[in-house]
């Protein structure tokens, strides 16, 4: 497996074959501008922006659309590469993983890499010589495209890794690829002087080790990224690195104190930046840390802070995810009534936001909690409403799940009512208690009677 040091010298073993230089000589120092001021300088700024550390899937999606539109207007394939990388990033940033999201993101990365290959190809020696002698803007920009594609690919490999039951198979197939591409991107960015890209790529390598549950290496790479971000003086990126280190300590090292300290550092920085969205996410992460330590009241305080911030930026989806964390903590601490009350509030928040899918899913979770606590009547009502919502959305999986929940609640409710009715009439019906089926009972009773008669 390659290390970052093995990728220090350009061209690296992966990117050497993908240097898109052929056909872009010194005479084409600027990207063709057929419909507006789209110059190499603009593309350079776009490259810097795609090495993102914070933001939402929606913001990434809008950025991808803008780049794709610019690519269509100018017929420039390099802008199209950036648009595809940005589209992959939107999938990575989606809070809820679904197969179609993963497929779209990975497809975008494959297409971006294919475009880079089509733009031009040098032998390793020729690429190295060109890098040493050429100083044109285009050469440097194209190498940065390769770095961005490697970065996007590594992030996708990490984000869309399967669950624990498939982790071993994923490790064999994709571990080296994610680490190599992250290292490639970091090495390319280092040579090009793109500090943000270098640090973001180092962080992605740390993410890969995090998925593989290698706590020591995950923390090490995230701390390397933190050092570069600090050297840059970018507070937002520094805060991002602190959240990564905090997650390493919480999920891998199970060290609540260090996890909490790092997350608090991130909160302070986002407060200084007045970034309510990211600060809210940090309060949510801190709530999980306190939940791990069994500090219920601190969890409630953190979620309250997170909700206030998410409400301020009108992000109901993040607010309901934070509320769900609190619901689980309340259930874990046998505070059932509070949990159910908060679950109903989640439904209300989604309904007020006009989020039908979110409302249906929150109703489904509420019905699940009711079923687990044997509240059959209310579980049936809630599952029925969720079922109707999923039908209006034509979502088959949701329809099937809620129908099963509804059937279970209805069956258990009827069984409970029948048992209660039989108990009330016990003295009059002369039924054995408990009422049960006993195959062969009649035969055993006959044999016992025959033995008694013979003895008499």
Automatic annotation (TrEMBL):
<dbReference type="InterPro" id="IPR011990">
    <property type="entry name" value="TPR-like_helical_dom_sf"/>
</dbReference>
<keyword id="KW-0175">Coiled coil</keyword>
<protein>
    <submittedName>
        <fullName>TTC28 protein</fullName>
    </submittedName>
</protein>
<feature type="coiled-coil region">
    <location>
        <begin position="242"/>
        <end position="276"/>
    </location>
</feature>
């Amino acid at each position: 497996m390659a290390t970052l040091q093995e990728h220090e010298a350009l061209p690296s073993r992966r990117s050497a074959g993908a240097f898109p230089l052929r056909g872009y000589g010194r005479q084409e120092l600027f990207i063709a501008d057929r419909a507006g001021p789209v110059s190499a300088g603009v593309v350079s700024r776009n490259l810097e922006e795609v090495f993102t550390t914070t933001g939402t899937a929606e913001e990434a999606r809008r950025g991808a659309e803008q780049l794709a539109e610019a690519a269509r207007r100018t017929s420039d394939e390099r802008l199209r590469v950036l648009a595809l990388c940005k589209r992959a990033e939107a999938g990575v940033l989606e809070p809820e993983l679904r197969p179609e999201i993963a497929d779209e993101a990975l497809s975008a990365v494959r297409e971006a890499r294919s475009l880079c290959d089509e733009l031009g190809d040098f032998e390793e020696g020729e690429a190295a010589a060109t890098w040493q002698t050429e100083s044109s803007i285009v050469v440097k920009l194209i190498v940065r495209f390769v770095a961005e594609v490697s970065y996007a690919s590594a992030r996708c490999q990490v984000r869309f890794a399967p669950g624990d039951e498939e982790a071993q198979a994923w490790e064999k197939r994709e571990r080296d690829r994610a680490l190599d591409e992250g290292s490639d991107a970091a090495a390319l960015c280092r040579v090009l002087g793109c500090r943000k890209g270098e640090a973001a790529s180092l962080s992605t390598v740390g993410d890969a080790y995090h998925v593989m549950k290698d706590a020591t290496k995950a923390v090490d790479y995230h701390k390397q990224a933190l050092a570069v971000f600090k050297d840059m003086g970018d507070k937002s990126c520094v805060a991002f690195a602190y959240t990564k280190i905090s997650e390493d300590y919480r999920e891998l090292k199970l060290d609540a104190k260090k996890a909490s300290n790092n997350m608090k550092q991130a909160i302070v920085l986002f407060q200084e930046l007045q970034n309510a969205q990211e600060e809210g996410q940090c309060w949510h992460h801190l709530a999980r840390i306190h939940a791990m330590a069994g500090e219920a009241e601190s969890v409630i305080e953190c979620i309250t802070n997170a909700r206030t911030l998410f409400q301020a930026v009108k992000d109901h989806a993040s607010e309901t995810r934070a509320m769900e964390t609190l619901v689980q903590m309340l259930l874990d601490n046998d505070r059932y009534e509070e949990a159910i009350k908060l679950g109903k509030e989640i439904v209300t928040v989604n309904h007020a936001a006009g989020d039908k899918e979110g409302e249906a899913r929150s109703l489904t979770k509420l019905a699940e909690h009711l079923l687990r606590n044997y509240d059959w009547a209310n579980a049936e009502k809630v599952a029925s409403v969720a079922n109707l919502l999923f039908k209006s959305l034509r979502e088959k999986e949701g329809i099937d799940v809620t129908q099963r929940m509804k059937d279970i609640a209805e069956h258990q409710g009827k069984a409970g009512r029948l048992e209660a009715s039989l108990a009330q009439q016990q003295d009059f019906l002369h039924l054995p208690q408990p009422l049960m089926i006993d195959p062969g009972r009649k035969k055993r009773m006959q044999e016992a009677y025959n033995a008694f008669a013979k003895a008499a």
